[in-house]
TrEMBL record:
It is an enzyme of class 1 (oxidoreductase). Keywords: Oxidoreductase. Its EC number is 1.3.5.1. The keyword rRNA-binding does not apply. This is Succinate dehydrogenase (Quinone). The lineage of its organism: Eukaryota, Viridiplantae, Streptophyta, Embryophyta, Tracheophyta. GO terms for cellular component: respiratory chain complex II (succinate dehydrogenase). GO terms for molecular function: succinate dehydrogenase (quinone) activity.
Amino acid sequence: MASLLKRTSFSSLRAHHQAAEGLILQSRRQIHVEPGVREKALLAKDPALERFKSYRKSASSIRRVGDYLTIAVVAGCCYEIYVRAVTREEARKALKSK
């Protein structure tokens, strides 16, 4: 009788362990599930929102203009720093020569 209880308890533990492994494997596999009616409705095209959609060409051209403006601002800042450094150095030399 005791051996019968041991067998059933071990077999139930083993079955529970295998079931837990199966759940872990399923979560790792990420099984594809078709979207439901609500999800399909949310993913459908909405003509009212069409004018707010950014298209690829216009978005890339805006990005390019932004890149050029960034380069221009950084170059202007570098030039301003250079001019201030040069004028400061000239002022020091003028004070030493007097």
